[in-house]
Specification:
The complex is a heterotrimer of chains A (249), B (126) and C (151). By secondary structure, chain A is α+β, with helices and mostly antiparallel strands. Chain A is built from ten helices and seven strands. The chains are: A alpha+beta (249), B mainly alpha (126), C mainly alpha (151).
Chain lengths: 249, 126, 151
């Protein structure tokens, strides 16, 4: 395989010494099978050990290595350098999050919002362990399977223009996960979750740009999930206004 | 800490963001034309002369261009709406979920049918 | 909660504590309603508005129909029909609630987020007022002969 050199323009930010972000160029030898993450690791191993970024599995499962490459949020382990257009590859940290250092961002806001939608089965009455598992048919699994593939890589938050302009938005992944549990036949927490997503920091800011679903590496469809949630939350709201008695049950 | 803020004008950076804004503007044109309809009803209630003046104004070449632009944007709104509503299906009507492309095609067919019905029932036929 | 504790279920206590914790934020009242109306208006305008614009504003200048098709006589002949009046009311109300909601979000997307309350009052105000005016022109004025000096 032919080797060639590609210039990587990498976002640098050292909070102890820098007043703002800068870019640093590195020349990296590239083969046809080099992914962006390989190039970053080459920089760290041989050119500049101070470069900081997150990664773990190298195979699109852990969701740690998300970055903006040429402005588009991607998992860097899944993007071949040979497929990128233009002479220079620009690597930025994911957009819409505070930058801790170089390419590392802080997710605390997402983590708080994820906890808010209670990403676990809610049962009114827990069955005893001796009763065994909560069983489902293949159709019942299929109802939420796509939305359950999220690996919390946060690319959708990086792509979302609404999340970029307001904190009052639950965001794509947390919404998709909320919808995933609402559609789960074993779960009994739909009303609770719909209440959470109907708050000021819920889903109402979403304008269905749809970019979250475009960038998702796992083919989750947060954009569609949010619209479905809006319909459900809106219907629930109308029910509570028109029939307060039956809704409070 | 380096907080990140997307500057206004972001919708020009990516063709998909631009299409999104065109879709949103299309919806606003629907409201604009609703105001035109309201105005038309008002002039109608004022009597034959006022209504004729309104029609004469709407018939000027300038207003025809404005109307054509509104029509084009409302078409963008309608077609994108037909594509979008197939993607959000909180209540599954059929055993298998309908792929959005199929829902889109169905919506287009329904749209043509409804348009013909409206033409006959509301506007008095062809 | 009175949920019987199982002898071995790591993480269970934490999850339960979280589940019981009262959500501090209050549910919003306005947003689900305006979104519902926006959504309904989206259906109405998508299906009904193109043919309306085409018939009332484009077909005659394009020479497809004679001008009397949209003249006062033709309009007066069709307008007493309850269905016709309902059609105009629904299209105007739907278009306003749909478009004004989108206008508000366009303004927010453009970065004008500080004035959100102002945009909301203006946009939904126009929608509510326009819909009330449409009720007046489609049903109150022709049915009861009410006339309001400012409309």
């Amino acid at each position: 395989m032919a080797e060639r050199e590609v210039v990587f323009r990498v976002h640098r930010y050292r909070p102890e010494s820098d007043r703002g972000p800068t870019y640093q160029d590195y020349r990296v030898p590239i083969r046809d099978d080099t992914v962006v993450l390989d190039a970053l690791n080459h920089i760290k191993d041989t050119l500049d050990p101070t470069l900081t970024f997150r990664w773990s599995c190298r195979m699109g499962i852990c969701g740690s290595c998300g970055m903006n490459v040429n402005g588009t949020p991607v998992l860097t382990c899944g993007v071949f350098v040979k497929d990128l257009r233009g002479g220079v590859v620009t690597v930025d940290p994911m957009a819409n999050f505070p930058v801790l250092k170089d390419l590392v961002v802080e997710f605390d806001d997402f983590m708080r919002k994820l906890q808010g939608v209670k990403p676990f089965l809610i049962r009114k009455e827990d069955a005893p362990l001796s009763a065994g598992e909560y069983r489902q048919t293949p159709e019942q699994v299929e109802a939420y399977r796509q939305q359950s593939m999220c690996i919390n890589c946060m690319l959708c938050y990086s792509a979302c223009p609404v999340y970029s302009r307001t904190d009052h938005f639950l965001g794509p992944a947390a919404s998709a996960i909320a919808y995933r549990y609402i559609k789960d036949s074993r779960d009994e927490g739909a009303d609770e979750r719909l209440g959470r997503i109907s708050t000021k920091t819920g889903i109402w800011e979403c304008t269905f740009v749809g970019e979250c679903s475009v960038v998702c590496p796992k083919d989750v469809d947060p954009a569609a999930a949010i619209q479905s949630l809006k319909v459900l939350a809106s219907m629930r709201h109308m029910r509570r206004i028109l029939m307060p008695k039956s809704a409070s049950r | 800490m380096l907080p990140w803020k997307r500057p206004a004008g972001w919708w020009l950076r990516n063709p998909r963001y631009f299409l999104f804004q065109m879709r949103e503007v299309g919806g606003v044109f629907a409201a604009l034309y609703a105001l035109v309809l309201l105005w038309q009803l008002r002039e109608f209630s004022q009597g034959e002369l006022a209504y004729a003046t309104f029609l004469a104004f709407m018939g000027t070449p300038g207003m025809f261009v404005v109307n054509a632009v509104m029509f084009a944007f409302v078409l963008v709104h309608a077609i994108t709406w037909f594509a979008l509503i197939g993607k959000a299906q909180p209540v599954q009507l059929t055993k298998e979920p309908i792929p959005w492309q199929k829902a889109f095609a169905g919506n287009l067919v329904a749209w043509v049918g409804i348009s013909v019905v409206v033409l006959y029932l509301i506007f008095g036929g062809l | 909660m009175g949920v019987p504790r199982e002898p071995w279920n790591p993480g269970h206590e934490i999850v339960r504590l979280e589940a019981v914790a009262k959500e501090a934020e209050r549910e919003v009242v306005l947003e689900p309603m305006v979104w519902g109306l926006f959504s309904l208006g989206g259906f109405i305008t998508a299906f009904l508005l193109p043919v309306t614009i085409f018939f009332l504003s484009l077909a005659v200048p394009l020479g497809l129909w004679p001008a009397e098709r949209i003249g006062y006589g033709a309009f007066a002949a069709r307008f007493p029909d309850l269905l016709v009046r309902l059609f105009f009311l629904v299209v105007i109300g739907g278009g306003l609630f749909h478009g004004m909601h989108r206008l508000r979000h366009i303004l927010l997307d453009a970065g004008l987020t500080r004035a959100d309350t102002l945009w909301a009052v203006l946009c939904y105000g126009v929608a509510v007022f326009g819909t009330l005016a449409a009720v007046y022109y489609t049903f109150l004025e022709p049915t009861f002969g009410w006339s309001l000096p400012f409309l």
